[in-house]
UniProtKB/TrEMBL annotation:
This is BTB domain-containing protein. It comes from Nyssa sinensis. Keywords: Phosphoprotein, Ubl conjugation pathway. Residues 38-123 form the BTB domain. Coiled coil: none annotated. Pathway: Protein modification; protein ubiquitination.
């Protein structure tokens, strides 16, 4: 029996993009071919994604709530407006839900962090969920580096107001300021050492110092 995973976005007849499963690769949940047909269509902006409920509700609290709050228990289509990052962000988040390897980069970490917050992909629903993965990347790769921080900060501009609501903007700004101060302090100390090099103390110098101290003590 074959198994499937989420494949690439393919254009549908209506011109919208549809997220279709592909039988050419394996999926960690081992979906049988007989169950390949989608049971949930999600609209994000102008894109349409034909997916499955189980992997999505397992990691996304937002999608779980939308399905639970729906009047029709057999709902097969939901719309997610105002998702930070739009279809691009949802595509990566959906692949993450299906266990497909996703790469977090300087270019997409802000988008994915905001999308993870919006979709409620937190530790409450799964260990090492998307929100946690993006946080690790931010702490290890972005915040310690001024150049990376500035680059991610620029990406935050298109993700307002959520990037501010989750304190991503303020954290990056504070990190840039802190790292800049550290660099200035290090540079200042380096110049100070260059202008006033430490002089080695010789044995002869020690004797002279002791004589001077003795004279001061004697006169006192």
């Amino acid at each position: 029996m074959g198994v499937v995973t989420v494949g690439e976005l393919k254009p549908s007849i209506s011109g919208k993009r549809t997220f279709r499963p592909s039988s050419s690769t394996r999926h960690v949940a081992e979906w049988p071919i007989s169950d390949v047909s989608s049971d949930l269509t999600i609209e994000v902006g102008a894109a349409t994604f034909a997916l499955h409920k189980f992997p999505l509700v397992s990691l996304s609290g937002k999608i779980r709530k939308l399905l639970l709050e729906a009047k029709d228990s057999k709902i097969t289509r939901i719309n997610i407006p105002a998702l930070p990052g739009g279809p691009e962000a949802f595509e990566i988040a959906a692949k993450f839900c299906y266990g497909v390897s996703t790469e977090i980069t300087i270019s997409n970490v802000a988008m994915l962090r905001c999308a993870a917050h919006f979709l409620e992909m937190t530790e409450e629903f799964a260990e090492k969920n998307l929100e946690t993965r993006t946080e690790v990347y931010l702490k290890e790769t972005v915040l310690p580096n001024i150049s990376n921080s500035i680059s991610v900060l620029h990406h935050c501009e298109t993700l307002l107001p959520i990037s501010e609501e989750i304190n991503l903007v303020s954290r990056i700004v504070n990190a840039i300021a802190t790292n800049a101060c550290k660099e200035q302090l290090t540079s200042g100390l380096s110049k100070l050492e260059h202008n006033f090099p430490a002089k080695p103390i010789t044995r002869h110098g020690n004797r002279n110092t002791l004589r001077q101290v003795g004279k001061i003590t004697h006169s006192a």
